[in-house]
């Protein structure tokens, strides 16, 4: 595969490593810097790539806070680029720059853009995409994007290079025991980067679609993990769970977050579809029958609160994984949001005897574990593994 090169720069703590992992996924490989001609370069730069996408990412380690470190990193990139050009080694040419600025520090945008622009003066005509990392506040996003554009406009020699401003949440960010900010913007960043790559390197539409689908699935499963922790926390009450209604707020957040990852628009049609999923997972006959069956499992030596936590976590995980499957079908055009009967029947099937068996295994595993300090996280880990694709077979 012929790779393009994306240079990633930004202040220390802005979240570059998290961003790189979110874009490239679990099969990311760190590559050695070859032909740099300087022993110090490998300390300042790291290259990451994946066999699934035709651009590698060059991370400028130590860009901030030290001026010395910043200059060392930029010097290393310049040396690498110049020596590659001298050797006619075009596969090391910088094709795109990601400027990473932190959404929670928007007041620093103008100064950060000015500093980063100076640092990358060598690449005067390279397309730039500004990535607003840690963009947790939805109401602030438009204002933050405008601040970035204004800061770029002030850099007249560089303003023409700006090809996109993309707010991103690179991984599920836990706000409290029952709330989180779900991943966003990763697919948009992949699309924007591929769009400005040279024609000979740009990925084919079908290849980039397959890669993005993989990333959507992984990011959606991180939402299920965070939601399941919330379910275990809410469910850990000392009295028996009468029904699953107490999980409704967590499941609504979970399902909406997964829908957003798959690009499902927020409208009346999607609300009806999502409400149908929530109804099955909280107040349906299937949910009530599952709770009754779980209470009747003999030989489980767990305190009432722990038992309830496992049951609650099981509901949230089952509904989450079911939602991933459903929204993926819609994303691929195999189902539509009008298929209300289908989604109800499908979700009811998620709460059948197989569901009871999996949660029963979870109860047993938790009982055997002996507990721990963070019981909700432990329960979530056990349950998520059981409900992940292929889980619970043994």
Structure description:
The protein is of the alpha/beta class and 394 residues long. The protein folds into two domains: 4-203, Rossmann fold, CATH 3.40.50.300; 210-387, no CATH class. 53% of the residues lie in helices and 12% in strands. It has 14 helices and nine strands. It has helices at residues 16-24, 41-44, 67-86, 109-119, 141-153, 186-195, 205-235, 248-261, 268-282, 285-295, 304-331, 340-350, 353-369, 375-387, and strands at residues 4-10, 29-31, 45-49, 55-60, 96-102, 128-133, 162-167, 173-176, 179-181. The strands form two sheets. Strands 2-3-4-1-5-6-7 form a seven-stranded mixed beta sheet, with helices on both faces. Strand 5 (96-102), helix 4 (109-119) and strand 6 (128-133) form a beta-alpha-beta unit. Helix 8 (248-261) packs across helix 9, helix 9 (268-282) runs parallel beside helix 12 and helix 11 (304-331) packs antiparallel against helix 12 (340-350). The protein starts with a strand and ends in a 7-residue tail after the last helix.
């Amino acid at each position: 595969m012929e790779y393009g090169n994306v240079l990633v720069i930004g202040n220390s703590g802005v979240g570059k490593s998290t961003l790189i992992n979110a874009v490239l996924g679990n099969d990311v490989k760190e590559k050695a810097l070859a032909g740099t001609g300087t022993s110090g370069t490998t300390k300042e730069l790291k290259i990451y790539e994946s066999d699934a996408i035709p651009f590698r990412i060059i991370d400028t380690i130590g860009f901030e806070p030290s001026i010395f470190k910043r200059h060392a990193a930029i010097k290393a990139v310049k040396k690498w680029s110049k020596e590659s050009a001298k050797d006619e080694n075009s596969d090391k040419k910088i094709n795109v720059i990601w400027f990473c600025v932190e959404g929670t520090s928007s007041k620093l945008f103008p100064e950060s853009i000015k500093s980063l622009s100076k640092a990358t003066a060598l690449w005067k005509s390279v397309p730039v995409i500004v990535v607003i990392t840690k963009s947790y506040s939805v109401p602030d996003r438009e204002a933050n994007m405008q601040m970035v554009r204004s800061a770029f406009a002030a850099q007249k020699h560089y303003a023409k290079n700006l090809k996109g401003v993309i707010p991103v949440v690179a991984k599920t960010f836990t706000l409290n025991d029952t709330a989180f900010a779900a991943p966003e913007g990763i697919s948009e960043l992949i699309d924007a980067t591929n769009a400005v790559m040279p024609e000979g390197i740009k990925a084919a539409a079908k290849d980039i679609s397959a890669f993005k689908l993989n990333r959507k699935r992984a990011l959606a499963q991180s939402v299920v993990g965070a939601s399941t922790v919330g379910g275990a926390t809410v469910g850990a009450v000392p009295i028996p769970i009468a029904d699953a209604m107490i999980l409704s707020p967590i499941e609504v957040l979970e399902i909406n977050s997964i829908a957003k990852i798959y690009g499902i628009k927020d409208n009346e049609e999607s609300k009806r579809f999502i409400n149908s999923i929530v109804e099955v997972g909280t107040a349906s006959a299937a949910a009530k029958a599952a709770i009754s069956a779980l209470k009747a499992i003999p030989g489980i030596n767990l305190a009432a609160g722990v038992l309830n936590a496992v049951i609650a976590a099981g509901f949230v995980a089952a509904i989450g994984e079911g939602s991933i499957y459903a929204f993926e079908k819609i994303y691929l055009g195999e189902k539509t949001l009008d298929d209300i009967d289908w989604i109800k029947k499908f979700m009811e099937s998620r709460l059948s005897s197989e569901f009871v068996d999996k949660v029963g295994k979870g109860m047993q595993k938790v009982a055997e574990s002996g507990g721990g300090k963070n019981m909700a996280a432990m329960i979530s880990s056990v349950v998520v593994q059981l409900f992940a694709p292929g889980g619970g077979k043994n």
